[in-house]
Amino acid sequence: MAQSQGWVKRYLKAFCKGFFVAVPVAVTFLDRVACVARVEGASMQPSLNPGGSQSSDVVLLNHWKVRNFEVHRGDIVSLVSPKNPEQKIIKRVIALEGDIVRDVRKLKRM
Fold first, then answer.
1. Is 51 exposed, middle or buried (0-12, 13-18, 19+ CB in 10 A)?
2. Is the pTM above the cut of 0.85?
3. 78 in active site
């Protein structure tokens, strides 16, 4: 009986050590390096979520590149919605600082 209690005690001690190391490492990784997000809706079709509302894609968001301002045209970025701060949106970068953007739809009507 004493031998089984010693095994349980060693197991719990090893589990706690692993837990208290793994949790901070995982939280730091998800906050600073990258995290996983689900894409729903049709705004990024056909690149993401080609099935529309019936399905959703899962993407890896690279926090490291954004922190170092390494965003380029064509990149897909995630940001806080200006209309609803509790919601994140995903958009494709079409212009960078200093670029002039014209609405082609308005030019065609003229």
1. exposed
2. no
3. no
Instruction: Look up tokens 């990258």; give the residue.
Output: 34
SS (H, E, C) 48-95: CCCCHHHCCEEEEEEHHHHHCCCCCCCCEEEEECCCCCCCEEEEECCC
Q: What sign has the CA pseudo-torsion 14, 20, 24, 27?
A: positive
pLDDT band at 83 (very low <50, low <70, confident <90, very high): very high
4 is catalytic: no
Catalytic residue of the set 9, 17, 43, 47: 43
The answer to whether the beta carbons of residues 81 and 89 sit under 8 Å apart is yes
The token duo for 3 is 């031998």
Query: Tell me, what's the pLDDT at 67?
Result: 72
